[in-house]
Amino acid sequence: MADTWLIVGLGNPGPRYAQTRHNVGQLVADELAGRRSAAFRQHKANARVAETWLRPGAAKLVVAKPNTFMNVSGGPAAGLARFYGIDADRIVVVHDELDIPFDTVKLKSGGGHGGHNGVRDVAKALGTPDFVRVRVGIGRPPGRQDPADWVLDPFGSAERTALPILVADAADAVEQIVDEGLVAAQQRFHAPRP
């Protein structure tokens, strides 16, 4: 049987949050499903799921968007992992990252949650932090703006121009992790830009 991977795009539900910085993980999930014309459907694990393949004959992808708010993303992620029989080393969580500049993608496996409540809840629900993270940089807020407000704001106009490329890069990173492994993907995405 083909290798199966669970890709979880973190975010908040509903139109109010759809285009906010905190929802970039779900935008990447949409990109991954859209590249394969895979439709999302409701799943009993309280998530929307698109089942597809990396390419014919390659790994199966279960692309998921929890229906819950960010801070309680763990339940749906763990429920899907159980349902599909997927171990933590085959789970990729895609999320926004304040401590990485906008328009940058960083990849890692395991480690702490860096103050990200969605990642914290997924680690708690899975019982391990040892899953892959695709960290999509949104940068820190300007001036004294509260980071909690910043992540819930829509992307600015200059960011919106670059956003499709950032989302595509993060989706490319997910595909490369599944196809060639984390180290190969890190070598590509962590390399200095020409």
From TrEMBL:
Under InterPro entries, the record lists: Pept_tRNA_hydro (IPR001328), Pept_tRNA_hydro_CS (IPR018171), Pept_tRNA_hydro_sf (IPR036416)
What enzyme category does the UniProt record give?
A: hydrolase
Instruction: Provide the residue positions that the database annotates as binding tRNA.
Output: 17, 69, 71, 117
What is this enzyme's EC?
A: 3.1.1.29
Give a yes or no for keyword Protein biosynthesis in this entry. no
Q: Which organism is it from?
A: Microbacterium betulae
Q: Which Pfam families match?
A: Pept_tRNA_hydro (PF01195)
Q: Which UniProt keywords apply?
A: Cytoplasm, Hydrolase, RNA-binding, tRNA-binding
> What does this chain do?
Hydrolyzes ribosome-free peptidyl-tRNAs (with 1 or more amino acids incorporated), which drop off the ribosome during protein synthesis, or as a result of ribosome stalling.
Q: Name one GO cellular component term.
A: cytoplasm
For this chain, one GO molecular function annotation is: tRNA binding
Q: Do you know which Gene3D superfamilies this protein is assigned to?
A: Peptidyl-tRNA hydrolase
Q: What residues sit in the active site?
A: 22
Identify the residue position(s) of the site Discriminates between blocked and unblocked aminoacyl-tRNA. 12
Any keyword DNA-binding?
Answer: no
- Chief subcellular location equals cytoplasm
Q: Which reaction does it catalyse?
A: an N-acyl-L-alpha-aminoacyl-tRNA + H2O = an N-acyl-L-amino acid + a tRNA + H(+)
Q: Which residue numbers mark the site Stabilizes the basic form of H active site to accept a proton? A: 96
Name the family the entry cites: Belongs to the PTH family.
Q: Which GO terms of type biological process are on file?
A: protein quality control for misfolded or incompletely synthesized proteins; rescue of stalled ribosome
Q: What quaternary structure, including any partners, is listed in this protein's UniProt entry?
A: Monomer.
| Subcellular location, record wording | Cytoplasm
Q: Which SUPFAM superfamilies match?
A: Peptidyl-tRNA hydrolase-like
Specify the protein name: Peptidyl-tRNA hydrolase
